[in-house]
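Late entry, evening session. Most of the bench is empty. Finally got around to the prediction I had been postponing all week. Sequence below, unchanged from the version circulated by S.P.
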Amino acid sequence: SIVVSRRPPPERAEGDPNLIFVKSVDEALAAADVRRGKWGDEVFVVGGGEIYRATLARADKIFLTEVAHAVDGDVTYPALNDADFVEEVREDFAAPFPYRRRTLVRKRAPH
């Protein structure tokens, strides 16, 4: 895992070869590129909101869960332009509350 954080890594993370701390999205993507093949060819972004906003223009695929329920929290995913994506998968669920999982693929190459 590659973690983007302004804070120094916690002591418990020191020495773990599978955990890398960086200070920017660009550093994270560069670290992922160096490990391409060893860690896989896909990069998965797990927010917060600032990280989502910084990476959305580079995404070629989005795995999105939409929850139809009020939840506590202040982070949301940035608005998507539906014209930029094709919906590849849509799954609707009812329990424990209504939600939808979607896979969206960018129609054109990312920026």
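Two things to note before I forget:
The radius of gyration is 16 Å.
Residues 1 and 16 are 10 Å apart (CA to CA).
Will write this up properly tomorrow.
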